[in-house]
Structure formats: C-alpha cells, structure tokens
Amino acid sequence: LNASGTDAPPNAASDIRSHQLEPEVSNSPPSLSTQPCASTGRLPDAGLQEVEVPGWIGDALKYFVLIDGGVRWTQLVGEWQRFEASLGHPDGQNRQNRLPTKARPEEIKIWTKNARDYEKLPKVKSVQQYATTWKQWWAELQPESRTSESDTWPMPRVEPIDPLDWDLLQRGGCNGFFLVVISLAWWVSAALLSGEGLEEAMHAVEDVSWVCRTITTGGGASAPAPTSKCVAYSSMLDSDVPAKRQRSDNTKDAPASV
To answer: For 157-194, how does the pLDDT look when each residue is reduced to its tens digit (9 = 90+)?
Structure first.
C-alpha cells in the first residue's frame, strides 16, 4: 500500500535512496560472504521478538540490507520473515517445501550450483530479459484467481477462495519462497545499477510483499511445515553491516543446491 492506503504503486524513485553509478557499471548484485551467521540482535522491521531461526536466514538478512530498495523493499523483507516464522522455519531440504522450477530464472540454478556463495552472485546480463523470465516464473506460481483473466502486470490482487490454492508458494525454507525474494533482490539491484526498469521491479516488490502477507494472515500458513535444527539469530538493520565479510571455508550450514 502507498501512503494514501491504496494499492496504487508510488513512483519508484520516491522511496529509494539516491544511487550513484560508477563509470563502468556491472549488473552484479552486491556481494556478501557465506560465513554462517549465529549472531544476535534485532530482526529488521519485522515486528518479531528474538527467535531461533536457521543460520541461512541470518546470511540472507545480511545480504538483503545491502539492497538499496527503500521502504518497499524493507517491508518485503519483514513480510518474508513473518512468513517463515508462521511456517515454523521449515526444513528446506524436504521436497514438500521446494518451489517448482518450471520457467525459473537460470540465475537461481547458477547460484545454487555455486553453493549459494554470496561472493559469487549471478550477473544479470540483461535487465529486460531477466524481468521477463522472472515474471513468467512468478505467474507460474500463482493461483488461478490471479491469472485467469489476462496477462496484465502487475497481476490482479485477487485472493483465492480456498487458501490451499496458495500451495505452490506456501513453502518456506531455503528452497521455498526465499528463492523468490533473493531472485527479486538481484532484479532490483540490477535495475538500480543500470537505471533500467526500476519501476517494474518495484511493482514486483509490492506484489511479492502482498502475496507473502496474504498467505501469512489469510490462513494459508496455519499448518507448520517440517522444521530443521535452528541457531539463535536476530538481525541488524540498525547495526553496522560491512559490504563484504571475509570469506569462510566453513560451508557446513550451506543449503544444498536444487
């Protein structure tokens, strides 16, 4: 929702901090090392108390705070944290918690094959092509209530009558909804760096945030999914987060590729 309380998307530049382009611009997302996170602090703007979560969420949050996506991006990260918590921080290695790969951007496969290394994030070579592929994948995951009328973008925000129709997206863990959020982070980052297609990317941020919130509050996330062993973590929006951390050779907590 924008400041007026409607679903009309505001101008993308209105809530995104100024972003200076370097003479030679790469569409690579900002990088972060893969050192497993076990620190404590506060969850960023998620309205959550300190809880135990998997270490991979800590690494993800340290990366997400580097995305210069303004208020709307921060809201999405908070919605995603509530989504994961509502599902009981499920085990991403359980096949029931994995998102379908049909039409999925190739960049996701590349990153997972690289052991989800935050220092080896995939490069978005063409923002326009990536946006097209990402939207096709996102549409594949939606219930019919959102896709039956037309191929308009942003898609209509029509909740399904049966909350179970969110099944393809009601999947937590490192191979679930998280892959939507991180692949969207790459799109936003590439759009900022190239100066191309930012408004469209921010429409996607708003849409993903709405879906995440709707599943969490609309009854679709009432049954916890299979869980995994967790470590204590709360995060760091108000703390000093370095743009890069020293690479760690300890990858035992890294999720398996899909």
So the answer is: 999 999 999 999 999 999 999 999 999 999 999 999 99
Taking the C-alpha atoms of residue 156 and residue 197, their distance in angstroms, rounded to an integer, is 20
Nearest of 205, 186, 254 to residue 72 by alpha carbon: 205
* Cβ within 8 Å of residue 224, ≥6 positions away: 87, 88, 90
This model's pTM is above 0.85: no
DSSP-assigned letter for residue 131:
H
Helix runs in 26-105, H state only: 55-64, 70-86
DSSP single-letter state for residue 227:
B
Q: Hunting for tokens 């096709």 — which residue is that?
A: 136
SS3 call for 12: helix
- From residue 183, alpha-carbon distances to 85, 107, 145, 216 in Å are 20, 8, 24, 21
Give residue-wise pLDDT tens across range 207-239.
Answer: 999 999 999 998 544 334 334 333 322 334 444
Q: Is 118 helix (H, G, I), strand (E, B) or coil?
A: coil
Reduced to 3 states (helix: H, G, I; strand: E, B; else coil), residue 47 is coil
Which residues, in sequence order, are bridge partners of residue 4? none
Residue 13 has pLDDT above 60, yes or no: no
Nearest to 258 by CA among 184, 186, 178: 178
